[in-house]
Amino acid sequence: MRDIGRSDLIACVVCSRSLSLLVLSLVMMLAGCATGPNANPADPLEPFNRGVYKFNDAVDQAVLKPVATAYRDVTPPLVRRGVGNFFNNLEDAWSLVNNVLQLKGEAAGNSLFRVGVNTFMGLGGILDVASEMRIDRYTEDFGQTLGYWGVGPGPYIVLPLLGPSDLRDAVGLAVDINGYPLTYVDDTTTRNALWILRAVDQRAGLLKVEGILDEAALDKYSFIRDAYLQRRRNSVYDGDPPDESQVEDAAPIDTPAK
Amino acid sequence: MHRRFFNYFIASLAGGAMALVVAPAFSADEAANVMIQRMSTDVLDSIRADTSVKSGDLSRIIALVDTKIMPNVNFLRMTASAVGPGWRQATPEQQRRLQEEFKILLVRTYAGALAQVSDQVVTMKPMRAAPDDKEVVVRTEVRGRGDPIQLDYRLEKTPGQGPGWKIYDLNVLGAWLVQTYRPQFAQEVNTKGIDGLIATLADRNKTNAKKG
């Protein structure tokens, strides 16, 4: 073990974590593969995924949503903004790494500048001074880095508690967790408290949106899935993905309705 | 001879006059991104100017969407693409109903989003399109507090009709509307048929309306 540096250790931890995740999903994959006329090629695990989705939804309704709602009602907006900024700053630090890994010089420079300015002039990230200075965020995670280097998304997977993902992003997430600065907070209680606060903060941010989703979706599961897969592809291409052979053309509009 | 010349003269005069009438109609066709920019600014300004919109009066927002946005949308094409192969099997009456219910669903959804408009501005992103493209993508960003929201449009050329372009798909935060609805619609059509899809849409619209 003496020859192994810290980075290798991290890699080991990552591997073991993502491996167990992979094994778990493989088992589930065999347990129930979607077949039949409605099977979506991007979602071969649909029966399993729907199960996890239901479970997540139940947990959300029972715990996360009430907590997030209370958090929103109790804390003043200014505090919530500070909390959000704080976590965004940590995320920017990890984006910096991923921008470098994707050889995106300008984005990496911006991320570095943002983290520097917000950490030292923004009270450790609580104030988003960089955005006031109009320095844009370029968020990148490891799933996007994998995508940038040509790794396809693989099958859609709904992760227990963590929500929508795909095979590539699940592996990416395991790396993200190890790259995210919170992981290196030494005190366990503080670290866990911060993780929970982060989850609550993110959930609270979604409270406004979920009403729209409830109204707009005929089937929330597939709405979220198809939006997620498109959005991730979009992010891998930084908001400008090549046209996917114009799916629309499957239905020629030769029949005027009036 | 003289008469023939005269006729010719009249004809060319009439032709010239027609050209004069027609020409402005063609030159009135703006570039797609100019049209989107104009529409976005117009919508945002109207929302800001209207206090009843801000207080959450949904009917006012729906009216606004109807007057400012819908004239620029080819909703027939949008619905047909979302329904997919099933569209061709639908009768004209079913197609009419599908458009009607889908429109109510979408307008309501976007009205909810528009009700949250405050100090946002829409910025245009660089466009890559050849001058003779019949279909283009216009990419924009809604900037306000927090991360910018990606909002893109697919437009088709409609020469001489309105501003010369019509929207037939919309992308919010990286997901195209038609592509997101298609699997859900297909699911309904496969299990319950076109009428089943119409009924599901109508039901959803009724529950949404009850929520106020």
In the sheet with the most strands of chain B, the strands line up as: 1-2-3-4-5
Number of helices of chain B: 8
What fraction of the residues of chain A are assigned to beta strands by DSSP?
A: under 5%
Helix and strand composition category of chain A? mainly alpha
Radius of gyration of chain B: 22 Å
| DSSP helical segment count of chain A | 10
Computed Rg of chain A: 20 Å
Choose one word for the global shape of chain A.
Answer: globular
DSSP strand tally of chain B: 5
Structure keywords:
heterodimer; A: 258 residues; mainly alpha; two-stranded antiparallel sheet; 10 helices; globular; disordered N terminus; disordered C terminus; B: 212 residues; alpha+beta; 5-stranded antiparallel sheet; 8 helices; 5 strands; 61% helix
Notes on the protein architecture:
The complex is a heterodimer of chains A (258) and B (212). With 258 residues, chain A is mainly alpha-helical. Chain A is built from 10 helices and 2 strands. Chain A has a two-stranded antiparallel sheet with strand order 1-2. In chain A, strand 1 (156-159) and strand 2 (163-166) form a beta hairpin. Chain A is globular. The model of chain A is unreliable at 1-16 and 247-258 (pLDDT under 50). The longest helix of chain B has 34 residues, at 177-210. Chain B has a 5-stranded antiparallel β-sheet with strand order 1-2-3-4-5. Chain B has 212 residues and is an alpha+beta fold. Chain B is built from 8 helices and 5 strands; from the N terminus they run H-H-H-H-H-H-H-E-E-E-E-E-H. In chain B, helix 2 (32-49) runs antiparallel to helix 4, helix 4 packs across helix 7 and helix 7 packs across helix 8 (177-210). Mean pLDDT of chain B is 84; it is low at 18-27. In chain B, strand 3 (149-157) and strand 4 (165-172) form a beta hairpin. Chain B is globular, with a radius of gyration of 22 Å. Chain B has helices at residues 2-27, 32-49, 51-54, 58-69, 75-83, 86-89, 92-114, 177-210, and strands at residues 121-124, 135-143, 149-157, 165-172, 175-176. The interface between A and B is large, with 38 and 52 residues.
